[in-house]
Amino acid sequence: MKRIFLTLAAILLVAASAFAGKTYTISVTQIVEHPALDAMRIGAADRLKEKGIEATFNVHIAQGNPATNVQIISQIMGEAPDLVMAIATPGAQAAAQKIHDRPIVFTGVTDPVSAGLVKDLNNTDGKNITGMSDFSPINKHVELIREIVPSAKAIGVIYNAGEPNSVVLVEKLRDEAAKAGLIVEEATIANSSGVYQAAKSLVGRCDVIYIPTDNTVISAVESAVKVCTQSQLPLIVADVDSVARGAIAAVAVDYYKMGLQTGDMIAKILVDGVAPADMPIEFLNDLNLHINKKAAAAMGVTLPEATLNRAAKIIE
User: What pLDDT was estimated at residue 285?
Assistant: First the structure.
């Protein structure tokens, strides 16, 4: 028995030493810089550090520019990293199209199947890619809207029609809104500079504005906050970080926790040698309600006590 324990200890020591002296290179492609996407990157780095895995992150941010998003992939190929981390749909799509000789782990991708990244959620079709979906619980968002603005008859939504994930989310919004007896008024943009005018165009057409997990819009959410405050129009969002930036409320995944779980997937590939093709797409089912009372007051909204009582975080 003692010999078995000694043998097991030796195996574990060898396994640990296999990566103890190695520093992995991880190239990151991120479509735009904003707190939710940054949180996923930070979470992944923190999880690797917790596990004692040394890694250097080469971070590339496209700042919402589609051409830059593609150019970044060429830069990453020149870096020859051990693994590519793609944050959000545009970067994941660009990486998947060009990089086939090293693992890709995406995170914060709404619909990996519709985005053409994988065949289905349990089958990556033998590809070198896997990752995490942050598919928004649209039904929960509509419920939150009805709870906070019970008199609402029309939801205004701002999104970039060039983001495939946003198109999927708005289609789902139409379905869920119809079930609740609500109509959806849409305003589309091509870049973040259009958010202010898009929000202005919805004034008078809707009773509440909703912003899905659209990278372009979220990067300029303050523009929507300004319009909603001026017009006394409630603003509900799909990511908790935008609540701290002036929206009234969101029920959503914690993107830092998603980053931690993404870090676990990266570790399995780099250290345990698991192939991305053998790893199904993962989800984070832990939802949090964040509320900004100051924003609610500024937009003329009185928050129900029941809503406040179930909030994970309240900004006074």
Answer: 78
Residues 94 and 243 in one domain: no
Q: What is the pLDDT at residue 126?
A: 78
101 shares its domain with 246? no
All residue ranges of the chain with pLDDT < 50 are: 1-19
134 with 108: CB under 8 angstroms? Answer: yes
Counting other chains too, the contacts that 296-302 makes at CB distance below 8 Å and 24 or more residues apart are: 296/148, 296/234, 296/248, 296/249, 298/229, 299/228, 299/229, 299/232, 299/233, 299/234, 299/235, 299/248, 300/232, 300/234, 301/148, 301/149, 301/234, 301/248
Which pLDDT belongs to residue 20? 54
Parallel, antiparallel or unpaired: strands 287-292 and 249-253 = antiparallel
String of b and e for 90-118 (b: at least 16 CB within 10 Å)? Answer: bbbbbbbeebeebbbbbbbbbbbeebebb
In angstroms, rounded to a whole number, what is the distance separating the alpha carbons of residues 121 and 119?
A: 7
In this structure, how many other beta carbons lie within 10 angstroms of the beta carbon of residue 275? Answer: 14
Residue type, 21: G
**In terms of domains, do 40 and 127 share one?**
yes
In 3-state terms, what secondary structure has residue 183?
Answer: strand
Domain range for 74: 24-134+254-286
* Shared-domain flag, residues 282 and 293: no
Predicted local distance difference test score (pLDDT) of residue 155:
99
Per-residue pLDDT, 55:
98
Q: What total of structural domains would you count in the chain?
A: 2
- State whether 83 and 38 are in the same domain: yes
In this prediction, residue 306 carries a pLDDT of 96
Q: Which two tokens stand for residue 300?
A: 């003329």
Nearest to 23 by CA among 52, 46, 43, 59: 52
Sign of CA dihedral 232, 158, 240, 169: positive
Q: What is the pLDDT of residue 31?
A: 94
DSSP, res 180: T
